[in-house]
Please model this.
Amino acid sequence: MPKGCQLILALDVETKDEALALAKPLAGNLRWVKLGLQLFTRHGPGVVDEFAALGFQVFLDLKLHDIPNTVASAIRSLRGRPCSLLTLHASGGPEMLARAAEAARDALPSCRLLGVTVLTSMDQAQLAAVGISRSAESQVQLLGAMASQAGIDGLVCSPLELPILRASLGTSPLLVTPGIRYPDAKGDDQSRVMTPAQAAAAGASAIVVGRPILKDPDPAGMTLRIRREIGETA
Ligand code: C5P
Model:
């Protein structure tokens, strides 16, 4: 991934046809799309090829988490797929992460792995329920440092965690953040948010944006506005 901040469009829809209808008009005006478990489990891994064939870089958001051998095997099963970013849960532990990194170097040499630290759906009470008493922020730092040490290329994080992760991990890890909103946005389920320009200034390598583009009356215009604001295009 080049230096500077990039826009990734989250194609959070039910079917490939819906996703294609949203993405096709943006080809040429957008580099990245994110495909999630929903499309992957419905249509199979060939969905990656279809979006790559349209000229998009594909972020495959599978959030893998299993024993090291199974995660490494799943990554090897993606051999040759044109995906450029792939997620896994950092909480799978150092051995799972190291084995995943090794498998990706072998089977997907041009794909970067991103560790998911603490899901934003996990608040302090949810963390306590699974036995984690430290704050979400310090858990993010612990998992982020562990993932970096295990050879994972970057992290998915909240925009509010960008400054602290940049301070502790430096400039090299990719930090990819959802939770992007404009101040005038109508309320939805994202609460800890930043604007595209704020996230870029705080050190994001890429921002993941779904509804602000998908629900805009002019998705192509909104795509261009965001790319300009983060300095991805003139
Ligand atoms: O529509 P919206 O811009 O909120 O989409 C954000 C995308 O980022 C969605 O695909 C969502 O699942 C994902 N995401 C998130 N928060 C996280 C991790 C992923 O919003 N902590």
User: Anything to note?
Assistant: The chain has a mean pLDDT of 94. The pocket of cytidine-5'-monophosphate is lined by residues 10, 12, 36, 119-120, 156, 178-180, 190, 208-212 (CB under 6 Å). The first helix runs from residue 16 to 23. The domain at 6-230 is CATH 3.20.20.70 (TIM Barrel).
